[in-house]
Queue: 2 jobs
Job 1
Amino acid sequence: MAIIVDLDLQLAKRGLSVGEFADAVGITPANIAVLKNGRAKAVRFTTLDAICRTLDCQPGDVLRWVPDEGVDDA
């Protein structure tokens, strides 16, 4: 299973740079990069709240789950 972070898509839709977004959310551009590159092991709800507030979106607009290939649900 993989959790995909679609921040690039959301930032592009809104014409926001990583720096502008990081300032608005209140975290460092380096931490934005960790999220965007899928290297984050966790996201605090306060950070997710700030991301959604800044982008005026729902958590599902930023995060999505993709099942592993070849995994049987049975």
Job 2
Amino acid sequence: MKMFVDVPTVYLCVDMVDFRKSINGLAALVEAELELPVLSGALFVFCNKGRDKLKLLYWDNTGFALWYKRLDKHKFKWPKLISPSMTLTEQQLHWLLSGYDVIGHSKINVTGKQVL
């Protein structure tokens, strides 16, 4: 199931985040540490230290929305880069949410093929 479709920009916060932070704390982190406009409509993705939880923050023109995902038995494949943030394509976001590594993949075409 695709939760996010036609997202303008997806920013991945590479550093692990204290998950006691909620909307206000994450919004402050986006503006202060990542130096990105939190009200742009972009989607900001954060991971906890254990790499088993994600929070996604975005502004939808009426307010902030916070989406939370916890893996039951596995860990997210979180990239380790020098930059404090990186951008993802919509396809890479769906890979990440499905538990796949987002670095090194190329877009696959499954048109006309049955996906199990």
